[in-house]
Amino acid sequence: MKAEIWGTPVAYEERGEGMPLVAIHGWTGCRLQMTERLEPVFADLPGYRRIYLDLPGMGETPPCARVQNTDEMLAFVRAFIDRVVGEKAPYLVAGHSYGGYLVRGLLAAEDSRAAGGILLCPVANPVHAQRILPPLVPLVEEPAFVQALPQPEREAYGGAIAVQNRYSYAAWQREIDGVKDRFDAGYLDAIVRTGYGYARLPEEGKIVDVPALLFLGRQDDVVGYEEMLELLPHYPRATLALLEHAGHQLAIDQPEAFVAMTRCWLKKWESERPRQ
């Protein structure tokens, strides 16, 4: 499916019917990563219209000349939501990594219609060199299988996944290694140089008074977790899941926990929704 936003054809797909849930992938990623992680949640949970998009310069969406920094990327995503969901309709939003950074902006916007958000290992500090990062210490559940992998694959997989077994290797191949070249490097590098971080902290001076589900990995050596914990006072209705044996690819490292906790949170959100 395509939706033209600011002269740019945005590639996206929809699954299911009901309450819109917009899913946003991470930096250099694509919508496949979010479909793989979220669709198991909805296997037995009807009533949600899942909308997965590719951000500008990533996946099947070309660069957008009007998007040169993250503030403009956020405005672009909001324009996409207005077009596809409706300008007045409420929606849920989910995002991984940089997608979670955008979710922070969506939830904190003054005129936000977001009724709740799922933040999966979101960016807290946009300056990579200043992040507080724990070491990635993998739990190798199947050492013979991992050792038998070709060395280049073993090193790439081992540097990204905290729980190493046949399942996580297959997921890594499909969701990460298999889509690693689906982005415009020049375009994204320019954004990193000129404006990867928001001009102003989204939560500054604000209370984000909507339900939120926050997943953090204790072994997340990409964005870390400590700095996101410092932002929790801005989210008084947040549910926090800080998982051991989970890195930046938490939904691959701990798939059962991710699916079960997300489904439980959504069911509680449904029960609270009529009273809001």
Automatic annotation (TrEMBL):
<dbReference type="Pfam" id="PF12697">
    <property type="entry name" value="Abhydrolase_6"/>
</dbReference>
<dbReference type="InterPro" id="IPR029058">
    <property type="entry name" value="AB_hydrolase_fold"/>
</dbReference>
<keyword id="KW-0378">Hydrolase</keyword>
<dbReference type="InterPro" id="IPR000073">
    <property type="entry name" value="AB_hydrolase_1"/>
</dbReference>
<dbReference type="InterPro" id="IPR050266">
    <property type="entry name" value="AB_hydrolase_sf"/>
</dbReference>
<protein>
    <submittedName>
        <fullName>Alpha/beta hydrolase</fullName>
    </submittedName>
</protein>
<feature type="domain" description="AB hydrolase-1">
    <location>
        <begin position="21"/>
        <end position="260"/>
    </location>
</feature>
<dbReference type="GO" id="GO:0016787">
    <property type="term" value="F:hydrolase activity"/>
</dbReference>
